[in-house]
Amino acid sequence: MPFDLKDTYLFSQLSSSQLDRVRSFSQKIHLQEGAALFEPGDEARRFFMVIDGQIKLSRLSLNGNEKVIEVVSAGHTFAEALMFSDHPNYPVRAVAITDSVLIAIDNKAFLALLRESVDTCFRVMGDMSMRLRNLIKEIDDLTLQSASGRVAGYLCGKYITGGRQKVKFDLDTPKGVLASRLSVKPETFSRILNNFTSQGLVKVRGGQIEVLNPDGLQNQAQSAGICGQSMGPAKEDA
Question: So what CATH class is 5-140?
């Protein structure tokens, strides 16, 4: 469902008048599937909130392969940390995975508002702190854990959402993008899902996953860290 500014962690403590100010220096952007929002090296004058759709943040390796850094879904912001740099440039490429709607917020105007709102300053600090924690965990996962463990950990994160169990869920991100996000090749990702199916852990129907053996899946996920951590930006209750 589409989100509004007030529904997002970063803006949730702003007063109605402050939200109106943010809206006054913001711009709604519509992107078609596959359209680029910005490229690496572009001047970072704005940060963004996704209100509908998904945005892929990625970089190209030296051999030309794409590495997906993050998939930003509706209700989350990205690129806000760059507003604190003197001469910021986007370090990644941002592309719409699906038809998407975003709000672009002017960095300088938002910084001026931050100087008036201690609560919002702490929100920004908390958001960046959680992102740092997730990045550290991801480094551990990539260097210490198996590909099967990472995929199982992701599926556990989708199975346990907000403290509730979802036996069936959709992979709402293309499998190729998911594979890159988890640092596995697409054929490896498919092979791991097939292995989990043959073990009776899950049932795969197109883009839908049904968890048949939660305990078995969790055992697989233990090699990738805490079961229940899903891909994406940090949430308020993370």
Answer: mainly beta
CB 93 within 8 A of CB 57: yes
Task: Describe the chain by its helix, strand, coil percentages, rounded to 5.
Answer: 40, 25, 35
State how far the Cα of 213 lies from the Cα of 7, in Å rounded to an integer.
Answer: 34
Same fold, 5-140 and 146-224: no
Residues in the chain: 238
Query: Which amino acid does the sequence have at 60?
Result: L
Tell me how far apart the alpha carbons of residues 102 and 46 are, in angstroms, rounded to a whole number: 12
Q: What is the pLDDT of residues 19-36, one digit of tens each?
A: 899 999 999 999 999 999
Residue 227 in this model has a pLDDT that exceeds 50: no
- Domain 146-224 falls under CATH 1.10.10.10: yes
Query: For tokens 């945005």, what's the residue?
Result: 55
How many angstroms separate the Cα of 94 from the Cα of each of 13, 72, 169, 223? 28, 10, 26, 31
Output the six-digit token pair for 219: 């055992």
229: nearest Cα among 154, 177, 167: 154
